[in-house]
Structure formats: C-alpha cells, structure tokens
Write a structure and sequence with these properties.
InterPro entries: NUDIX_hydrolase-like_dom_sf (IPR015797), NUDIX_hydrolase_CS (IPR020084), NUDIX_hydrolase_dom (IPR000086), Nudix_N (IPR029401). GO terms for molecular function: hydrolase activity. This is NUDIX hydrolase. Its cofactor is Mg(2+). Strands 4, 5, 6, 7, 8, 9, 10 and 11 form an 8-stranded mixed β-sheet that branches. With 182 residues, the chain is α+β, with helices and mostly antiparallel strands. The mean pLDDT is 96. It is elongated, with a radius of gyration of 19 Å. The chain is 19% helix and 35% strand.
C-alpha cells in the first residue's frame, strides 16, 4: 500500500507504538493499515464413498484438479463460504459435516479450511470456474495433477482417517521450504 485509504496521503512503513510488525501508517491522519491473511474455505465433497474434484478453469493452476474452495467473503461464516464455493465450482449443493483441516501457508498469507461435506445428489457439472467436475474413488485421485499442496495434504489426511473409520481435525503448516523439497 502506498497511499492512505482514509485521506490519500503517502504512507510510511513503520512499527506503530505497542505493535511489533511493520505496518503502513499514514503520517497525516495516523490511520494504520493492518494487512492480514486471507481465508480460503472449501469442502471435501463426498458422494457414495467418492470424492468430488474440480478441474480448474481459472488461474492459478489452470487445468489442475482441486477440491472446491475459494476466498471467504465478508459477512459469511467459514462453512457458508465453503458451501458457496462448492456450488460455484461444481454446481452441487452440499451439507457440511465437520471442519476437517486447517492449513496455514504463511509465505502467501493464507489459511485454508476444508470441511467434510456430503453431496445431496450427484448433480454436479462444469462451471465458469471448473472445466470438468468428477467423482473419484480414493485409488483414482490424480495426485500428480492436483493444483495445491493444501489439497494434497487434506486428501492424504482424509485417506489415512478413512482407514481407521474416524475423522479427526488436522492442523498443518506449509512452508516455502517444504514446497521446494516436494
């Protein structure tokens, strides 16, 4: 940020009193801009033992498979956002069962939340955001064609939990170093 959203004056990057991080601070009106992480919320949509995946029709990672997910909007809950994204990306109506994974990705300032969800019907279809939508058996997941490491981690957690018949909450952090070693 170069200019204050309150008064338009050029901002300075400084650590405000009582804070511990550089912030964009307006020397004119003293407005402090808190640039906080973005929340991405989505589902692991299940139907008769299969997982619904969407082939991305948008960047980033155009053409790769993903779980339906996207940026949470203001004035919605994380589960509402997850269900909205599922509808937008797959045309499917789902029901959230439980929060399943939370993956922090500090180097891109994001937190990814995935809910276990059940599809009401198998009425999915391609959308503006997804060129293809399909159900996959667990042994058919296109691992080398998955768009994001948070999706890969979430699916691996799901498969491991399914072996034991109980679904736990998983919290993980993906660092830049982990991405370069994958």
């Amino acid at each position: 940020m170069r200019y204050c959203p309150q008064c338009g004056h050029a901002v300075n990057m400084t650590i405000p009193n009582g804070d511990n991080r550089l912030r964009a601070v307006c020397p004119s009106c003293e407005h402090i801009d808190y640039d906080n992480p973005r929340v991405i919320t989505g589902t692991i949509p299940l139907y008769k033992g299969k997982i619904l995946l969407c082939r991305r029709n948008i960047e980033p990672r155009f053409g790769f498979w993903t779980l339906p997910a996207g940026f949470m909007e203001n004035q919605e809950t994380t589960s509402e956002g997850a269900l909205r994204e599922t509808l937008e990306e797959s045309g499917s109506v789902a029901k959230c069962m439980q929060l399943f994974s939370m993956i922090s990705i500090p180097h891109i300032n994001q937190v990814h939340l995935f809910y276990l969800a059940e599809l009401e019907r198998d009425d999915f279809h391609a959308t503006e955001e997804s060129s293809e939508v399909a159900l996959f058996d667990l042994d058919e997941i296109p691992w080398n064609e998955l768009a994001f490491s948070s999706v890969s981690k979430t699916l691996k957690f799901f498969i491991e939990d399914k072996k034991y018949g109980t679904y736990n909450f998983h919290e993980e952090t993906i660092t830049l170093n982990q991405l370069s070693s994958d």
